[in-house]
Amino acid sequence: MTKISVAVATYNEEKNIGKCLSSVADWVSEIVMVDGSSTDKTVEIAKKFKAKVIITDNPPIFHINKQKAIDACTGDWILQLDADEIVNRELKDEILEVIQRPSNCHPEFISGSSKMLKQVQHDKKNQSINGYWIPRKNFFLGRFLMKGGQYPDYALRLYKKGKGHLPCKSVHEQAIVSGKVGYLKNPLQHFPYENFSEYLEHFRRYTDIFAREYKEGSLGINPVSFINYLLIKPIHWFLLSYLRHKGFMDGCPGLVFSFFSSLRFPVSFIKYLLNK
């Protein structure tokens, strides 16, 4: 049987980690968790699921610890999860199917260009697949967001051992997989925020990181930058997510999400200016 490892990085995730690991513990070969020295019961809960736990520091770019977990996995395939994600039965069955038949990449479910569809159909017939994009359903203010560009929200999370890695340069980067990749049909369920206060805390942390990235990238302070980050980018993003991608169909949660997603540009830029 092909073995599958789950790789997860954590820091103070006692509210989420139990539900995450319980969704995979009975069908994967191992769980590898790298913990950034949590001060809550995260590690204690993980050990109840017989996870292999590696305790280290908690770097600002959390993908560093995710990569440590990936490196420590021994399975033939690696499923990289966040602590606030859940694998339902349909996705579990699909994963178990594709790792046994790696050329099965479900091209009929691909959302993209005709060129991409033809490429994946060709790969299905002629070559094995080294990784899979998995769609995600993001829960926000009481509902899963299905519009506003928030679904299917593909993430490259399933790949063969030794074929995928994270660049560890940005908080929103995707894994890089050597070779061909396919697309799965069934989504991960993502529960990133318990309440709006928690969302605001995440918003604060992410805008801090973006401000630091602006500084490291030597973003210029000039009239063009001011207009771009304070006006053009937030207005463009709001119109794109709320109108073009129909975020309004998600009701009040869709409006709030589009608004704060747009605000990340001016808030990050102002933080960058204040700390320059």
Oligomer: single chain
Mean pLDDT: 90
- Helix proportion range: 40-55%
The poorly predicted ranges are 104-117
At the first level of CATH, the class of the largest domain is: Alpha Beta
Biggest sheet statistics:
7 strands, mixed
Query: How many DSSP E strands?
Result: 13
CATH topology title of the largest domain: Spore Coat Polysaccharide Biosynthesis Protein SpsA, Chain A
**Strand/helix succession:** EHEHEHEEHHEEEEEEEEHHH
Counting structural domains, the number is 2
Q: Can you tell me the overall shape?
A: globular
Rounded radius of gyration (Å): 20 Å
Cα-to-Cα separation, first versus last residue: 55 Å
How much of the sequence lies in strands comes to 15-25%
What strand order characterises the main sheet?
Answer: 3-2-1-4-9-6-12
The number of helical elements comes to 8
Task: Describe this entry's structure for a reader.
With 276 residues, this protein is α/β, with parallel strands linked by helices. The chain has 8 helices and 13 strands. The protein folds into 2 domains: 4-190, Spore Coat Polysaccharide Biosynthesis Protein SpsA, Chain A; 196-274, no CATH class. Helices cover 42% and strands 19% of the residues. It has a 7-stranded mixed beta sheet with strand order 3-2-1-4-9-6-12, with helices on both faces. Strand 1, helix 1 (17-22) and strand 2 form a beta-alpha-beta unit. It is globular and about 60 Å long. Residues 104-117 have low confidence and may be disordered.
